[in-house]
From TrEMBL, chain A:
Family matches, as Pfam families: FeoA (PF04023)
InterPro entries referenced in this protein's UniProt entry, alphabetically: Fe-transptr_FeoA-like, FeoA, FeoA_core_dom, Transcriptional_repressor_C
Entry keywords, A to Z: Iron
Annotated source species: Stagnimonas aquatica
GO molecular function (one): transition metal ion binding
Regions that span the bilayer: none
Domain Ferrous iron transporter FeoA-like: 14-90
Protein name from the UniProt record: Ferrous iron transport protein A
UniProtKB/TrEMBL annotation, chain B:
Subcellular location: Cell inner membrane
Transmembrane segments: 217-235, 272-297, 351-379, 391-414, 446-467, 585-607
Cross-referenced InterPro entries: Fe2_transport_prot_B_C, FeoB_GTPase, G_FEOB_dom, Gate_dom, GTP-bd, P-loop_NTPase
GO molecular function: ferrous iron transmembrane transporter activity; GTP binding
Membrane topology per record: Multi-pass membrane protein
GO cellular component terms listed in the entry, alphabetical order: plasma membrane
Organism (species): Stagnimonas aquatica
Main location class: membrane
Pfam families: FeoB_C (PF07664), FeoB_N (PF02421), Gate (PF07670)
Protein's recorded name: Fe(2+) transporter FeoB
Keywords, comma-separated and alphabetical: Cell inner membrane, Cell membrane, GTP-binding, Ion transport, Iron, Iron transport, Membrane, Nucleotide-binding, Transmembrane, Transmembrane helix, Transport
UniProt key word Ion transport: yes
Length: 92, 611
């Protein structure tokens, strides 16, 4: 997992995983976990692209997994490993 | 195909209302089959356009992108690109988008725009968009995209009129694709800024419902209540209908008996074909009620929520939240459960779900459990509150669930796949299920069940009938007729195999006709013990005979056997239909048989040691 390195790339960046519930944030990037990461590509296709607003709406009942994430007009259930790829910055 | 026919294909994101639009356009003029060589459902229908020309329409699987990540998305990509063998490239693509979710759906439209095929955009759910205060300037959108845009309301009668009329006009020219390397998201945002005004990001009502239905405590409690209601319905509503079907089959049997002389033909029709078909069709009411619930839950948007709530529980065993409904359905019957795995896109997760579905205790096992428990387990109270018979029944169900989780976990290790399985599940807006779509969906399931599974079952029940009827007993025979038949000989021959797990030759014989369906074993036992009676009466008469003639270890061993035994040709036929692989059928039957033997052996030996 490359999360620590990716987070440090942005002064204000953090993984979507660490975002408190219902707090608005802006997507900075989606990190590839390996070359040609299919899941990362699909996340971008689903609208996780720089500048989009995201919010964690709910968490699964066991271990907070999966996360329910609102992006644009759509809600997606993401497992923690998927949400970890999304780097966000919180809005002031 | 004549030149007068127009071939179109519906494409779009999942949850864009594509299938509802397809249903509205074609009504019941649909054909459901599989694409050649894969188990992705192929839905085709036809209707007449504004000029009376026949339009042939293909409902392609919903996809988020042409960069496919699952077999059904690959089908959509290949048909659109004209790379699918035996599937001519459509003349026109109708891109369906949900007007309340344009930001996501228009991105795919821009991707499809690059294909160079004539295109139409069906702006669906415009009624909902209007209600939410979303204002879409159709002319600006049309100009921005460079393709004709029509508004549709798939759930309303006449809601496809604009689309049908536009199809009657000349084909639009293929749209000009965006320059290579264009950022599609930016292009969508540009389009939206130009043509759409919207007050709020999502429907407030969704927020409010989700707050309750996805709550860690309330959400799970409501899910449990919904499932409880579903099972109540499956078992109690279906009861009178099943009784009716049984009566009808019995009546038909009597009618045929009265018409035909005693002999092989009569036996084939009454004991073979009618009994065989009756034994399968009797489950149709349960299956339809089950699918009514599943379809309604799916249409309303609740099903993905259930998958969300349960995903974590299932992932540990190498399954997915999406496996939940198929496995739950399997408690009624594994056949609809295995059919319902079509909603699992990941092929490996789907296979794992199919392989463990037969371990869920289906309703056909209940008559056998009931018979053996009544005969061998005393109706005493334990720990002051529990009924021992009830506890044993519960233990049998629990054993099925525990072994399913264990088997799925073992399969996960076995594969040792480093590939990450994703969830990435969209939770769509809630909507009221549409009666017409439910009815069409139910009809489709009923046809699949009767046609696809019925054919194989009919053939096999005739074979089993022949095995149990030939050769006929010699003159002056004293033992029951089945004893002299191939099935009887086979039963005797198999005894060495089953002796270590405590089965006597009567059980061995009953296991053979019981292959058709598990509960047939009860009437087969009655035949072996020379009783001529129907299932229910047989159980009553059998109880004292069994408790007198069998030992307790034998009875417990047979109970353990039925937790696992792959003794259901319908299930194996469904596995074959859904995987197109005899190898998978062999794996399923093999591992279930091995588990059944092992469980019975341990049960028998332990019971002998303690008895």
């Amino acid at each position: 997992m490359t999360i620590a390195k990716d987070s440090s790339a942005f002064a204000n960046g953090r993984s979507l995983l660490t975002l408190p519930r219902q707090q608005e944030a802006r997507v900075l990037s989606v990190a590839d976990h390996r070359p040609g990461d299919v899941i990362a590509r699909r996340l971008r296709e689903l609208g996780f692209v720089p500048g989009e607003l995201v919010r964690v709406v709910a968490q699964g009942p066991l271990g907070g997994d999966p996360l329910l994430v609102q992006v644009g007009f759509t809600r997606f259930a993401l497992r923690r490993a998927e949400a970890e790829r999304v780097q966000v910055e919180t809005l002031p | 195909m004549s030149a007068a026919t127009l071939r179109i294909a519906l494409v779009g994101n999942p949850n864009c209302g594509k299938t509802a639009l397809f249903n509205r356009l074609t009504g019941s003029r649909q054909k459901v089959a599989n694409y050649a060589g894969v188990t992705v459902e192929r839905k085709e229908g036809r209707f007449a356009d504004g000029n009376g020309r026949v339009v042939q329409v293909l409902d392609l699987p919903g996809t988020y992108s042409l960069a496919a990540t699952s077999p059904d998305e690959a089908i959509t990509r290949d048909v659109c690109l004209g790379r699918m063998a035996g599937e001519p490239r459509p003349d026109l693509l109708v891109c369906v988008v949900d007007a309340t979710n344009l930001r996501l759906h228009l991105r795919f439209v821009l991707e499809v725009q690059r294909l160079g095929l004539p295109m139409l955009l069906a702006l669906n759910c415009t009624d909902l968009a209007e209600k939410r205060g979303i204002r879409i300037d159709r002319d600006r959108l049309q100009a921005g995209l460079g393709i004709p845009v029509v508004e549709t309301v798939a759930v309303r009668s006449g809601g496809t009129q604009a689309l049908v009329q536009r199809l009657g006009q000349a084909l639009p020219p293929p749209p000009k694709p965006l320059p290579e390397g264009t950022d599609l998201h930016a292009a969508v945002n540009h389009l939206l800024a130009d043509a759409v005004r919207m007050p709020r990001r999502t429907a407030e009502i969704d927020d409010r419902i989700d707050r309750v239905l996805l709550h860690p405590v309330w959400g799970l409690a409501i899910l449990a209540a919904v499932m409880f209601l579903m099972f109540q319905a499956v078992f109690s509503w279906a009861e009178p209908l099943m009784g009716g079907i049984e009566a009808l089959v019995g009546w038909a049997g009597q009618g045929v008996s009265a018409l035909l002389p005693e002999g092989v033909l009569k036996s084939l029709l009454v004991d073979g074909i009618l009994a065989g078909i009756g034994g399968v069709v009797v489950f149709l009411p349960q299956i339809l009620i089950l699918f009514l619930f599943i379809l309604a839950l799916e249409e309303s948007g609740y099903l993905p929520r259930a998958a969300f709530l349960l995903d974590r529980f299932m992932v540990g065993a190498g399954l997915t939240g999406r496996s939940f409904i198929p496995l739950l359905s399997s408690f009624a019957c594994a056949v609809p459960g295995i059919m319902a795995t079509r909603s699992i896109q990941d092929p490996r997760e789907r296979l794992a779900t199919i392989l463990v579905a037969p371990l869920m205790t289906c309703s056909a096992r209940l008559p056998i459990y009931a018979l053996l428990i009544a005969a061998f387990i005393p109706a005493q109270t334990v720990w002051g509150v529990f009924n021992l018979q009830g506890l044993v029944l519960f233990a049998l169900y629990a054993a099925g669930i525990a072994s399913a989780l264990a088997v799925a976990t073992v399969m996960k290790w076995w594969r040792r796949s480093k590939l990450e399985h994703s969830l990435l599940l969209e939770l769509p807006s809630y909507r009221l299920p549409n009666a017409r779509d439910l009815a069409l969906g139910l009809w489709e399931r009923a046809v699949i069940f009767l046609k696809r599974v019925g054919g194989i079952i009919l053939a096999l029940t005739v074979i089993l009938w022949a095995l149990s009827s030939f050769p006929a007993p010699p003159e002056g025979a004293t033992a029951p007729a089945i004893d002299y038949s191939f099935a009887g000989q086979l039963g005797h021959a198999l005894q060495w195999l089953f002796a270590p797990i405590g089965f006597n030759w009567q059980i061995c014989i009953a296991l053979i006709p019981g292959l058709a369906a598990r509960e047939v074993a009860v009437s087969a036992l009655a035949t072996v013990y020379a009783l001529s009676a129907t299932d229910d009466a047989a159980a009553e008469l059998l109880t004292p005979i069994l408790s007198a003639q069998w030992s307790l270890p034998t009875a417990l061993s047979l109970l353990a056997w039925y937790v696992f035994a792959p003794q259901c040709i319908s299930t194996l036929a469904a596995i074959r239909r859904e995987t197109l692989s005899w190898r998978t059928v062999a794996i399923a039957a093999g591992y279930l048989f091995a588990l059944a033997y092992l469980a019975s052996f341990l049960t028998y030996r332990l019971a002998l040691a303690f008895a």
